[in-house]
Amino acid sequence: MGKTEELEKILGYSFKNKELLRQALSHSSYANERKLHGGSNERLEFLGDSVLSIVVSDYLYKNINVAEGELTKLRASLVCEKSLHIFAKEIDLGKYLLLGKGEENTGGRERPSILADAFEAVIAAIYLDGGMEAASRHILRFMPNDICSTKKPVFSDFKTVLQEVVQKNPEEKVEYVLIGEEGPDHNKRFVVEVCLNSQVIGKGKGRSKKEAEQLAAKEALELMGYEAQ
Questions:
Q1: DSSP state of 208
Q2: What percent of the chain has pLDDT over 90?
């Protein structure tokens, strides 16, 4: 059994278009080295993020009877990078990734940001190949059994907390700005500033844009006097 078939068995889904799964597993470092015509999994990641959000939102709306603010926190905790990293590890997704040499040699198969992005890309691949019902079945496998009793998000989501703080003043606007990238492709760091009405209130650096945004929001909360955990 080849690696693709092995992963399909784990996913419980057989692709009609095998190339979609291959692209979902192709990190940018691999795509750049091989000059792949279809490119890396970044565009699929973009789509998968949206599919994941709507499936989780629908699930929470139908199954959890709490206020909108609590639903937002629950969703944020389920779709954040830390959660997606855990979900990816549950299906041993790192084993099947296609990485460039530099990323392979520096532990890319275990890197949370790479695994989280690939998890979203696989969701998009299933969606494009089999539709929303197939994607939904795949996503819902990872929903915690005790989610109905969850009182707060499993993981801190600093962006959501900051947004809630800012929303107390409707005229205020929060914006995240990517101001730079550092390091080689296999060890890149993204630098993000969070601005309140164009005024910088926090800065974060991380292995992914999402992580950098979270750390920028964390710094902003701390500077505003909130205890970020």
A1: S
A2: 48
Give catalytic residues, as residue numbers. 49, 120
Its pTM stands at: 0.68
Query: In Å, how far from its chain's centre is CA 156?
Result: 14
| Alpha helices in the chain, H assignment, sequence order | 3-11, 18-24, 28-34, 42-63, 68-79, 81-90, 101-105, 112-130, 132-140, 158-166, 209-223
Rg of the chain over all Cα atoms, to the nearest angstrom: 18
Half-sphere exposure of residue 142, counting CA atoms within 13 Å on the CB side?
24
Enumerate residues 6+ apart whose C-beta is below 8 A from 59: 140, 143
Position 227 scores a pLDDT of 62
Give, in order, the Cα–Cα distances in Å from 4 to each of 21, 113, 135, 227. Answer: 8, 22, 18, 45
Residue 68 and residue 70: Cα distance in Å, rounded?
Answer: 5
CA distances in angstroms from 139 to 12, 15, 75, listed in the order given: 11, 16, 13
Crossing angle of helices 81-90 and 209-223, in 10° steps, is: 140
How many CB atoms are closer than 10 A to CB 164?
Answer: 12
